[in-house]
Write a structure and sequence with these properties.
Chain lengths: 301, 351
């Protein structure tokens, strides 16, 4: 029982990261209908910059807002310079441009900081707290920071005029433009926010998995799966989806372990949990194509 | 996209011209390789270069498979490396553990991959766009893990991989193994491209394109959308799997880590860069995939030596920049870009 709770705790912690990335994907998706495949590598790059700041002597909590600001700016600049000219280009061309961005960030990180893995200290102190047998302090911190970011974003979108303008631009660009909203800039802001959220995810996950250029590859896949399971058009759903995928992944490994210990039969282990989790996600999607919390869109012909 | 399809079903005169062209291409296809291997074992093209040429052709077949699915039927796949792997492993296992001859393994690999693709295509019917992208992406990520799966290890040999031995040229032909494999690959490719051309020109091909352009309209015209979508998934997997089988044989080795998801991405990039709904585009795409894999490293070293950069340049950096630049210059791929250039040139001459 204790092990099960530990696994759920670890799953929630991973889920927090997947949720952040899923949210970043959804933020770009709702306004452009594109999945930014470079989101994970951008987050990885942000984590490297945070590491560099810490190497230069900054504390983590000083480096984080700096990196978020930098990532925000980078996101806005990428949207304005690289993606703006591609409005109206075929979807696959945009996908290939995302793949190009992904490899550029990957290669830059490898070129600047080399491919050797780096240990990153956790910003959260190792202290005992009620329930600390079930969840580590870094894991709890990951969940806490993610929840804070989510609440901040929710507040921003729900209660500020700028947030309202961004939602309007995403939902109905034509009408938003008529109401005097600069839809183009709202798009760029969305990219910036997504990059900043991704930066938080990258900085939070780096102490848990070691910093290296490949660290976000499977996390992006899980985030993508989480976003789709929750409903790609619903930010709240994407966050829930991220947590679901995180817990699911750890439970599969746990169950496989239990089965092997009791019956001696090896079915799934750590090596296959990604595959099994994805199979389940896809099975859910074939039964419920718009995701668990998504809206079914009816298209007029 | 549209004009490549339209031009083929033109007037009788056009189709006669098309026949002459097809005839010339066919002649070229026979004469060129004969010239290349003319010198026998000590010819002016080295064995290494023959291997490179063979790999380009193999990737062209793989890219053609994806073209049929994505370009002509509108179903995206980020996981065609999985079928490539399935084909390669089928061939390797049959040759290594069952002593099958090469000529028998290729159709078998194609058949296995057709069924794998068809079966995958059935649930994929419920998924569209990004959902299909995720499902196929997941397939690409899953395949290396499945190949390493503990209970399959007796067959797949796990991370160790399987060594495949190239077959020597038959009938005592005075050719090196690489030259012989080049001829085999070329013949298979020519046959498969010919089949693809005819398929696209048939009732099936028109149905595929109709489904891509408007699936609802297609179904009201009496096209069985589900049937065609699953079948084209199978055909597409057949092409890519056959390419995988050939790759395994030329490369003489298969292992789970040669089929990571980067391979799927490379095939997709090749297809888009070449031109997603065009047969010549598949050839260009295949060349692109192999050139990048083989020469990006050397090219990058030359560039960084020339400009004396302080940090070590990664070939992938150049790759990313080239990809973005290409999509800017030619959003519909190299074939589409060439068509635009040609039209402009003609317009200028017209003035």
């Amino acid at each position: 029982m204790e092990q099960l709770l530990q696994q759920v705790g670890a799953g929630l912690a991973n889920g927090a990261i997947y949720a952040s990335l899923a949210l970043a994907l959804v933020m770009i998706f709702v306004s452009t209908n594109h999945i930014n495949f470079a989101q994970g590598e951008m987050a990885m790059f942000s984590a490297y910059i945070a590491w560099q700041f810490m190497e230069w002597g900054l504390s983590f909590w000083l480096a984080l807002p700096l990196v978020m600001a930098l990532s925000f700016t980078t996101g806005v600049v990428i949207e304005r310079t690289i993606l703006r000219p591609l409005h109206g280009a075929p979807v696959l061309s945009v996908v290939v441009v995302f793949i190009g961005l992904l490899t550029i960030f990957h290669a830059l990180a490898g070129g600047i900081w080399t491919y050797t893995i780096k240990a990153v200290p956790s910003p959260f102190p190792e202290v005992a707290f009620p329930g600390s047998g079930y969840i580590g302090s870094h894991q709890l911190g990951m969940i806490g920071v993610t929840v804070i970011v989510l609440i901040a974003l929710f507040t921003f979108f729900r209660f500020t005029p700028l947030g309202l303008a961004m939602r309007a631009a995403a939902q109905n660009p034509a009408s938003a433009r008529l109401a005097g909203i600069s839809v183009d800039w709202m798009l760029a802001l969305g990219w910036g926010l997504a990059a900043a959220v991704g930066a938080v995810a990258g900085c939070m996950v780096a102490p848990a998995v070691y910093l290296e250029p490949n660290m976000m590859a499977s996390i992006l896949l899980y985030g993508f799966a989480g976003a789709l399971v929750g409903g790609i058009s619903s930010p709240g759903g994407a966050v829930a989806g991220g947590f679901i995928v995180g817990v699911l992944e750890n439970l599969i490994a746990y169950l496989g372990n239990v089965v092997e210990r009791t019956t001696g039969l090896y079915i799934v282990g750590n090596g296959e949990k990604l595959t099994v989790a994805l199979v389940i996600v896809i099975a859910v999607l074939t039964l419920k194509p718009s995701g668990l919390f998504g809206h079914v869109t009816v298209e007029r012909v | 996209m549209a004009d490549t399809v339209a031009s083929r079903n033109g007037t009788p005169a056009a189709s006669a011209a098309g026949f002459v062209w097809g005839y010339r291409y066919g002649l070229l296809l026979v004469v060129l390789p004969l010239l290349l291997i003319a010198g026998g074992k000590a010819g002016f093209v080295s064995n290494f270069q023959f291997l490179q040429l063979s790999l380009m052709i193999v990737y062209a077949i793989a890219v053609l498979g994806l073209n049929l699915l994505t370009g002509f039927n509108g179903q995206i796949s980020l996981g065609h490396g999985a079928f490539f792997a399935a084909g390669a492993y089928t061939a390797a296992i049959l040759i290594d553990q069952h002593n099958w001859p090469l000529w028998a393994t290729l159709p078998m690999a194609a058949l296995v991959c057709f069924f794998a693709g068809y079966l995958f295509g059935l649930p994929a019917l419920r998924l569209e766009g990004h959902y299909l992208a995720l499902a196929t992406f997941a397939l690409a990520v899953a395949v290396p893990q499945i190949l390493k799966y503990r209970h399959l290890e007796p067959i797949t040999k796990g991370v160790m991989g399987i060594n495949v031995f190239k077959s020597d040229p038959p009938f005592g032909l005075p050719l090196s193994t690489d030259q012989w494999m080049f001829l085999v690959v070329l013949a298979v490719a020519a046959f498969m491209f010919w089949i693809a051309r005819n398929l696209l020109d048939s009732r099936t091909g028109r149905a595929l394109i109709a489904i891509r352009d408007h699936s609802m309209a297609a179904s009201t015209m009496g096209i069985n959308v589900a049937h065609y979508k699953a079948v084209v998934f199978g055909i597409s997997a057949l092409y890519t799997g056959l390419a995988g089988a050939l790759h395994g044989v030329i490369f003489e080795f298969v292992s789970p880590d040669s089929f990571r998801f980067e391979l799927s991405i490379a095939i997709l990039v090749g297809a888009v860069v070449g031109g997603i709904a065009s047969l010549p585009g598949a050839v260009i795409g295949g060349v692109f995939v192999q050139v990048i894999e083989k020469y990006a490293d050397a090219l990058t070293k030359q560039i960084s030596a020339a400009v004396q950069l302080p940090l070590e340049l990664d070939p992938w950096l150049i790759y990313g920049i080239v990809l973005i630049a290409l999509m800017y210059a030619m959003p519909t791929g190299i074939v589409g870009g060439m068509a635009v250039l040609w039209r402009r040139l003609k317009a200028m001459r017209g003035l």
